[in-house]
């Protein structure tokens, strides 16, 4: 009944198709523009370019972190991946199969689940904990008794004693307990990918650490893959294997954790990292590395979207949209400064393309 | 130590919290005003049902010699009306039609209006626009005017009055239903349910209804008081039930000319409408507080 | 603000068209031949045929509607079956009386409601609040046509202070300013004022209580500002909502005046409507309802735009 609870790491997931080398998720040219209400009577309709043509991959068994300021498209990316909003363009491949094509939406949703930031809003206040956790399996035809038993197992697994918690309502639980319920709910469908959208951001620091450790344990035990969205770089560094930096609906840089945190090639990533509070008083930044708010995604700057706030910006940056290009095997960045012969004065002169 | 604990909890007993409605009833039972109002409403309904056993006389029996007797006349506790009919009997029988006319339109409008509103709220987009613009048209009439217009065109009679009142309340309930559903639809738990692969009907039944029916229900109960006043008002204008049926609004109308002769008797049917209306209102207020619904 | 006004106007136009369709359909939901509804029952066959083609009753419904709406736009609402006079003229002379009554009632209701609600909001939870709440509860629950009868019983029948019905010494005709006429206005206006009073009191109570609970009034109090100054803040912040509620209530009263005008035989649109219902004078019924509903739509629009002019943050989308 609960074989998935006891699957060990070495076992191969029978649902695996392409083997470990094939990315679990491959996102290609994903675009989502939201229309905004026009302020005037006869003005043309405007759109928020929430996600503007992004490509990335999530590898099997990894934790991919997504960072960026609020409004950069992190959450929209998560909702697009979860198919909660329809993309305007682009497609998502899951283990090599097109979502909505070779793999049906229903099958896809069994394998991808999501944990939301607001632990209270993401639980129906009128349902008991066990009803919430068992809802997904019951939708997929699991008999009520089995689904409840499975829910109790999962509650136990996320550290909530079923006898004490299963019959309770969300408002009777603390934020950390509710988020454990949300994790159990996400796991109830035995997903392969779990999207964690700021899942620990609203929790107290001590509770956050417990939940992060729980997530790491669950990942190991269930052989999960995580997409970990957060604005907290320390947490991302602790949790993630690779990191994607987003700015105004575009991918600025993506690479292994060490590459991003030690050898970043994008001035935006560098500025984000510099704004991390440091424990070392000597290393504290005296000037804020990032000034002001990001520009509006309704009218994003031309060329490189970061050029309005970038201290290395030159005229060329306002004209050319830098493509996301590989710098090394472990790292890609979208910056003219790392693009050979781009016309930027800092651009590498070598590189024979 | 752990072994002992394990032994004690060997028989798992799940702690179950009282549900939402359980809490509502508990809070309501501690609200004396709402309880008294509810008791009066139940008593009125009982009077309406048991009218043949409670009324001392036939409510339709007229008498030329007994016309407009004052309150306290022996044998005619509340006096007689302009045709010599016993007021007490007529007030008791009047509860039947008055309650039917005042109450029935609300549950019917509740069912139709919530269905319309929940569909509009959940579907959003063009469906929402089409439904809600139509609702806006009916909402653009003041309730009294719309009820009078429809009844006036359809002609008097119980059924026509019921239809008119139902049409008056459907848009009001649909608006409330649409707005609460739109709010609930945006919440993460609905997204989570969609993410687990549930289809729209399942989500509406399990996740939306359980959260929107409460506020819509509270609003609907507050409409019963309005409906009582409107229904009797229609009869008062001659648009509701027809004479010689006993209905409080109609009685008020036919006794209007008697205010110079016997003012207290003439005012009695209005007291009944007032008491019924205020009790429904007080109960609705208590329910609102007990369910913690923002007005 | 002009742009917002135009935008609201664009929203209102479809609603107004919808309202006119509903009014148009009133004749058609009435049982029997629509022609019988607009002609006296003893009309000759010749006249019947003439009217049938004049009103386009032999044409499909949308065409009939277009004809009817076109004439209505030009002020032709048909002819009263009962009086034989043009419907629009009857409505216009009646609406002056209705407006006088509704404005008087709104002013009385707003004054008492505002005072009641303000006191209840400031002294929240005290006996003043409870009394104010009870009064507004009675106000929204009382069948006002009955209240009118009770006032007539007390002040006309028993005390003989005020007239029981009519619009002036000449019965339902004639208008003038002066105590002779004002006497007739007092009872209906007071009766009618009860409807908005309860609602305005409730609105203002919650507005005042909310504003007093907000951080900025708390901060003002903490800064040691005088109560009078805080109250000025409260009034300034509560005014836009209070005014818009008052405007809407005025619209409701004008549209819903039929019961009270019937009780007092007040010669307004409601009284006209009641007569039309009684004699099944459908052109008058339809025309009056159209004019009243359109007026209500207009009041809504004006209130919206005024409110956004006072406080630009409030703009209904």
Can you lay out the helices and strands and say which pair or pack?
The complex is a heterotrimer of chains A (353), B (295) and C (317).
Chain A: E1 25-36, E2 46-58, E3 63-67, H1 74-81, E4 89-94, E5 97-98, H2 105-111, E6 112-115, H3 129-139, H4 144-157, H5 162-165, H6 175-187, E7 193-197, H7 205-222, E8 225-229, H8 233-239, E9 242-247, E10 250-256, H9 257-262, H10 267-274, E11 325-328, E12 331-333
Parallel strand pairs in A: 3-8, 3-9, 6-7, 7-8
Antiparallel strand pairs in A: 1-2, 1-4, 4-5, 9-10, 10-12, 11-12
Helix pairs in contact in A: 3-4, 3-6, 4-6, 6-7
Chain B: H1 2-8, H2 20-28, H3 32-49, H4 51-54, H5 87-103, H6 105-123, H7 125-139, H8 143-154, H9 158-185, H10 188-195, H11 200-236, H12 248-254, H13 263-291
Chain C: H1 2-29, H2 34-38, H3 45-54, H4 61-73, H5 87-122, H6 127-141, H7 144-158, H8 179-213, H9 215-222, H10 227-255, H11 258-264, H12 269-278, H13 282-310
Keywords (chain B): Cell membrane, Membrane, Transmembrane, Transmembrane helix, Transport
Family (chain B): Belongs to the binding-protein-dependent transport system permease family.
Subcellular location (chain B): Cell membrane
